[in-house]
Amino acid sequence: MLFQEARGGDKFLLGGKGYGLVEMTSLGLPVPPGFVITTEVCKQYYAEKGKVPKGLFEDIRSKIAALERQTGKRFGGEEKPLLLSVRSGAPFSMPGMMDTILNLGLNDRTVKSLASASKNPRFVYDSYRRLVQMFGKVAMGADGSAFEKILEERRKKAGVTADIGLSPEELQSVAEAFKRVVKAQTGRDFPQDPFVQLEMAVEAVLRSWNNNRAKEYRKFYHIADDLGTAVNIQTMVFGNSGEKSGSGVGFTRNPSTGENKLFGEYLPNAQGEDVVAGVRTPVGMDKVEPGIRKQLEVVATKLESHFKDMQDFEFTVEDGTLYTLQTRNGKRTAQAAVKIAVDMADEGLISPEESVARVEPEMLEALLHRRLDPAATDKPIAKGLDASPGAAAGEVVFDTEEAAKVGAGKRIILVRSETTPEDIKGLIASQGVLTQRGGMTSHAAVVARGMGKPAVVGCSEIEIASDGDYFTTKSGQKIRKGDTITIDGTTGNVYSGEVRMVDPEASKELSVLLKTADGIRKLGVWANADTPEAATRARDFGAEGIGLCRTERMFNAPNRLPIVREMIMSRDEETRRKHLYKLFPFQLSDFRAIFTAMSGKPVVVRLLDLPLHEFLPTSEDLIIELQGMREKHVPASEIEAIEEMLARVRQLSEHNPMLGHRGCRLAVTYPEIYEMQTKAIMQAAVELKKEGKKGALVKIMIPLVADAGEFRFLRGVITAAAEGVLKESGTTVAYQVGTMIETPRAALTAAEIAKLSDFFSFGTNDLTQTTFGFSRDDVEAKFIPRYIQMGILPQSPFDSVDTSGVGKLVKMAVREGREVKQELEVGICGEHGGDPKSIAFFSEAGLNYVSCSAFRVPIARLAAAHAALARKTTAVTT
Ligand code: ADP
Ligand code: MG
Ligand code: MG
Fold first, then answer.
1. Residue 12: which residues within 8 A CB-CB, separation 6 or more?
2. Nearest of 540, 535, 472 to residue 504 by alpha carbon
3. Closest among 603, 708, 706 to 663, alpha carbons compared
């Protein structure tokens, strides 16, 4: 389909690039004429196991004839030869993953006539050698490095540093040498017939859909393998035809910060692929000739008002005339995504709802990421371009394959002279990337931004050793493979060692976006917080309550641990009570602080779920200690004390502590524990009330219930303790007593439990463990990766809730619980509470709120809004 005829076509048929070219043509932008071979053809090609569909080449010939009429040039003609590019273009942009061949139609005859007709023979031969090189590599399978070697030799011989310095004669002889490489490596001549070139190029592009790096990329981004690529055939324009020519990449807004200002990079006298490949470091938009720059501003405005999103576009200037060659929705950092969405809603380009839908919740993770501590005094060892913000530290790895291998086990920084699409695996595996060459739109920069990983590119202050085992900085410092470095993609700085980092804060635009999201979502977002500081942070991030305050975490402080130990060591209730009540003041002050931080909002306090063994030394340690004591002839009484501890440790030791004497089971045996905790909770609430402060809405939660009987007994203990405190204080404070649902049996008997319980909160970590019968600590590294690889599990059920199994229990418990108690409040406080996919599920299951770690609260707010929007669209369409 010719660009001007395919108007209104869709991306899946035309591919992203073809779609963009067609739309730009209809907008009246200067697009060199061409046509699209649709993805249907690619699908047929694969359906027929790699055979070009019948009639395709005839069809192409007739389109070429149309192009010839349109341009007044002839394909293969000597007079005014028509030259073409053959460009891949999938429905989803996969930058640099597939192949494109430029300058098709040049051969020994056309190159001569073109060179003699042209004022600039240098560029004609430069184009020819590029064709032989690209075509040889992509369409004929020659090894690319041989070409680079020849170029390097020629440059050395001529005493120049860049190809630009080579004379027409030298370039002509390079082209000849390239043809010999092709012949030697593939056994075939570089084809002189332009139509043969064209047919082979089309097939090569179709094949490139299934090359390894494209497959890797699709896997990472969950792009379906059967979409196929379109093939775009387009008249060439030449950015390498002299000083008034050049190629560049433009962004309608800054892809790194989101600032509403044309941003881009430009390489004078170069063909487009030089910019992306990062071979030479380009100049900024401000260096572009003012007349062209003005035209680019107009292009940017037209593109945005049409596509209603930030565009990333390619352009080429040939002898002072501007052409646009590609446009697509630009990849951007999380920071830019938020700013652009909010600004565009503000400008009226999109609706507020659309602005919320535009930002993927997971993207916020990068914003909520750590950055370098401003107070850190480390001095950078090098500075490059700040290509993708955020800071990362890790061990230096130079090789992509190695990065892919070791990156799973430790934090690494991939360091490359420049990255190519082959490096995608290494990028996936690393914390961040550092390159020696390339600009803000180089491959490494674009891909890192898309992945939300920090990147410093074009860092010419480092020199990577040719054997690739170390790099040297300007000052001569050597950084070896395995050394730790820190990169700061926000400033472009590189540091030796690991620099201290700090927690992030929300930008103005993020607050606006989240406010809009709050207006859309139905699901409440609460946070898990165990300390007053965490509670304050959660509130700052927008949490509407605390869904899980784990009291055992409060015992970890060094001054409390010995008391906890004494309590555990106690052999009878009286001694236990004595030690237990020593903890009372600590608990009281903790609760006071947390309730104060959350004033007016609900706080769910979960009573002790204490794995006893975690608070005692191991028997191995004790045995060693005893040995030492005996050798040193320590007094017998001290030895006895340790012996007694050892005996108790042995007594308490469990084969399977996860399923052992923990949670409410411990409280059924030692009810005084919950009694003390309840008293502390209620005392805190009473004191605040008496001081005229607004306390929290108190919700007391019992963990690990499997039977209504457990709940009934403990509720009795809790109520007695609470009423005792209230009676003594002479005031009243409202409180609720509810349960966690974190064992399958609790879910199965939800109706029974709901009769007694004021609320439910799903503990999906334990519920996942017990439903699968998987011990999380043991299985995550051992076999889950294998299960995912084999497709037995789509992902770890600990990362995203297993909707068909665990989810079924959740839905059932909600339904049966609410049958008994219509207004039963139901939340979830496992780590799934912060996972967008799980949030969508919980929203659908009718939960009242999700509770997640404070840092994920913004993600959850946005994800909950997405869930509501998704429900709304289904409601409209069905
Ligand atoms: P990719 O998908 O890797 O971006 P493209 O098809 O966009 O591949 O092409 C690679 C480079 O070649 C780009 O810089 C593009 O601008 C340039 N290019 C493609 N077609 C033409 C053309 N007809 N004239 C001039 N440059 C072109
Ligand atoms: Mg491109
Ligand atoms: Mg639990």
1. 39, 91, 227
2. 540
3. 706
Ligand 1 binding pocket mutation candidate from 236, 238, 326, 442 (most atoms within 8 A of CB):
326
673, burial (CB in 10 Å: exposed 0-12, middle 13-18, buried 19+): buried
Q: How far apart are CA 38 and CA 13, in angstroms?
A: 5
H or E, element range at 828: strand 825-828
Report the C-alpha gap between 32 and 74 in whole angstroms: 15
β strands within 186-338, DSSP E: 230-235, 246-251, 263-268, 283-284, 311-318, 321-329
Phi-psi region of 318 (alpha: psi -120 to 50; beta: other; left: phi over 0): beta
CB 122 within 8 A of CB 171: yes
* E strand residue ranges, 515-642: 524-528, 546-550, 602-606
- Sequence-distant (6+) residues with CB within 8 A of 675 are 717, 718, 720, 721
Q: Mapping DSSP to helix (H, G, I), strand (E, B) and coil, where does residue 768 land?
A: helix
Name 733's Cβ contacts closer than 8 Å, sequence gap at least 6: 682, 685, 686, 689, 695, 698, 726
Compute the distance between CA of residue 189 and CA of residue 204 in angstroms, rounded to an integer: 17
Retrieve residue 488's tokens.
């700061």
Taking the model in full, what pTM does it have? Answer: 0.80
Is 343:327 a contact under the CB 8 Å cutoff? no
Q: Strands 321-329 and 311-318: what pairing?
A: antiparallel
Residue 276 Cβ contacting ligand 1 at under 6 Å: yes
Among 829, 832, 852, 866, which one carries the catalytic annotation?
Answer: 829
Ligand 1 lined by 96 (C-beta under 6 Å):
yes
Kindly list the distances between the CA atom of residue 18 and the CA atoms of 63, 109, 133, in Å, as whole numbers in the listed order. Answer: 15, 31, 25
Determine whether 443 is an active site residue: yes
Q: Is the Cβ atom of 441 under 6 angstroms away from ligand 1?
A: no
Residue 222 — left, alpha, or beta (φ > 0 → left; ψ -120 to 50 → alpha)? left
Q: Which ligand is nearest to the CA of 742?
A: 3
Question: Could you tell me whether strands 524-528 and 263-268 are parallel, antiparallel, or unpaired per DSSP bridges?
Answer: unpaired
Residue 271 Cα to ligand 2 midpoint, Å, equals 12
Nearest CA to ligand 1 atom 16: 272
C-alpha 455/C-alpha 418 separation (Å) is 12
CA dist., res. 9 & res. 352, Å (int): 28
* Residue 527 three-state SS: strand
Question: How many whole angstroms from 530 Cα to the centroid of ligand 3?
Answer: 14
Collapsed DSSP state (helix, strand, coil) of residue 852: strand
Q: Which residues, other chains included, contact 633 with Cβ-Cβ below 8 Å and sequence gap of 6+?
A: none
Q: Encode pLDDT of 218-249 as tens digits.
A: 988 889 999 999 999 999 999 988 889 999 99
Sign of CA dihedral 389, 395, 400, 402: negative
pLDDT digits (tens, 9 = 90+) for 421-456: 778 888 889 999 999 988 877 777 877 876 768 999
Q: Give every residue of the chain whose pLDDT is below 70, as ranges.
A: 276, 278-279, 369, 450, 452, 553, 556-557, 872-878
Q: How far apart are CA 681 and CA 698, in angstroms?
A: 8
* Cα of 325 from ligand 2 centre, angstroms: 8
Distance from the CA of 681 to the center of ligand 3, in angstroms?
20
Residue 655 bears catalytic tag? no
Q: Whose CA is nearest to atom 1 of ligand 1?
A: 96
Q: Is the CB of 447 under 6 A from ligand 1?
A: no
Amino acid at 781: A
Q: How many Cα atoms within 13 Å fall on the side-chain side of residue 871?
A: 18
Q: Are 297 and 262 in contact (CB under 8 A)?
A: yes
As separate numbers, helices (DSSP H) first and strands (DSSP E) second, the chain gives: 35, 30
Report how far residue 693's alpha carbon sits from residue 688's, in angstroms, rounded to the nearest whole number. 5
Distance CA 22, CA 92 (A): 16
